[in-house]
Batch of 3 targets.
Target 1
Amino acid sequence: MGKAKEMKFVADSMLGKLAKWLRVLGHDTHYQRYYSAGTINQLVDEGRYLLSRHRETAKQYNNVLLLHSNNVGDQLAELKELVDLASARSKWFTRCLICNDLLENVQLNKAQENVPEYVFYHNASGIRHCPSCARYYWPGSHRKNMVRQLEKWGFTPFQVLKDPSGNGTPLPA
């Protein structure tokens, strides 16, 4: 059985916070504060789904998900109703929250030069690097707080897989 194609998104300029949280979940989400003429067309033509709160904008595209909520948590709930937004826990925190690129493992000597000393000595194996914007990420208190927030919004580090008998078996994602 083939791997399901992951949905890619483009968030309009009204949905910056949502774009960030979709990136936290590991979803490829393009976002800019301002889009020049034709940019959204190009991104939608590449197979991305436009996320918008603006009805008039939504009418211009085929692959569009119109959201009504103002709050990020409610927007994520709306998206879960519209599409399969499930994200394996292994995908969480794999994208740069700023530029959307996939994070990469980092050479220890580079990490040591670019993160606080206590971070390096406590989390050296968890440090990741964005190849585009050169930001460094590591599992710390901000990440723990983000995981707690995701759990409040109904995202869990488990996905439920059904066995042939119909029983749900929680497995680590």
Target 2
Amino acid sequence: MANVKLDIKNANISMEDIIEYKGEVKEIDKILRKNPNDINNFLGWMELPTNYDKEEFERIKKSAKKIQSDSEVFICIGIGGSYLGARAVIEALTGPFYNFTRKDTPQIFYAGNSISPSYLNELLETIGDRDFSINVISKSGTTTEPAIAFRIFREILENKYGAEEARKRIYVTTDKSRGALKKLSDEEEYETFVVPDNIGGRYSVLTAVRTFTYSCSWN
């Protein structure tokens, strides 16, 4: 792996200026690492590359393989970072036209980021009669835009496959213990992944909130 090189020749700052902050930066780093799992500070991202739920990650990979085998389309339902992080990774690794270039994995579309009926109608027309699965991402389950989209796609899945098969095509990413979506997920026995309490949205690109969606985009 190549080393990262810092080129400051045009930065109007010297290496001596940077070194001057060495002690202060070390102190800040020490404070940050003191209690990264404190849910009030949202510092869990500092240990995320090594400290994560291994069992959940195995379920994510297994679920992604299932979707690749039984679905031609995968719908990520969420708003803001809940879908933008996954979309950014997919486009960075596969290109902005993933849906037109990849033929061995499902097409991935996004819903629940607006209340536009025109968008949803066009998306439904695009899906057509093809097999599909959905992942709804919401910590509370009460955010208006994804809640509306989830209800629509849930009803479509149940009408298309029946309640039992629909349950196997609905994946939920939400709070680990509370909220309307968590309650529904437990009642319906949906496959569920967790939005971590100690990781803020901007740093959650490597959590289940993101990894499940882009795991479906490559073999």
Target 3
Amino acid sequence: MSRRPRLRAEEARRRIELAAIELFAERDPDSVSLADVGARVETTPQAVHYHYGSKAALREASLTRLIALITEALDALAHDLPSLTLSSLTDRAFQLAQDHPVAFRATLIELLRGDFADRLRHELRARQGSFFATATTQIVEAQRAGIVRPDASADLFGVAASLLLLITIGGSPDALPITPDNAHTVRARIREACRMILVSLLVEPDPLLR
């Protein structure tokens, strides 16, 4: 296959998987058909079937892409972790929710459906240089320095700091996308989630709660 057809095929799969992410979040996955996904991207169900072979395979591919989108978004936090305060963590999380409304909303919904949390946790741990890996290293260093409580595990930090930010954005998937009408409420709930994370982990959280 030449480079151009391969790129066209990759772009087609990207568009199909993003449409599937949206549809699986909007409705019960069992009620979504290949025709529904095809209609969302203005193509035929035969074209969708050509790329995936079955709805189950498309469902799997869409979850894989969703996890990639979320982990990439969380990676944006990694280089800021050493200097994060409650205010800056809230600002960054709020910005992520604004920048990735479909991915965050879909993640919130998928987290309520079963084993998606375990899958996301596994992917976070597997990504070298990711938010999880950076957070794990820094929490161990902070424990040695007496900043983070000794009983707070690195695993807890990586999972809780990632998933709590997702689960509590706006309090529910219906809060996304963020609009001028709900922005204040969403930011307040994100701030409270971030505050809970810091209070649960730090020996003396007060200096960061500003």
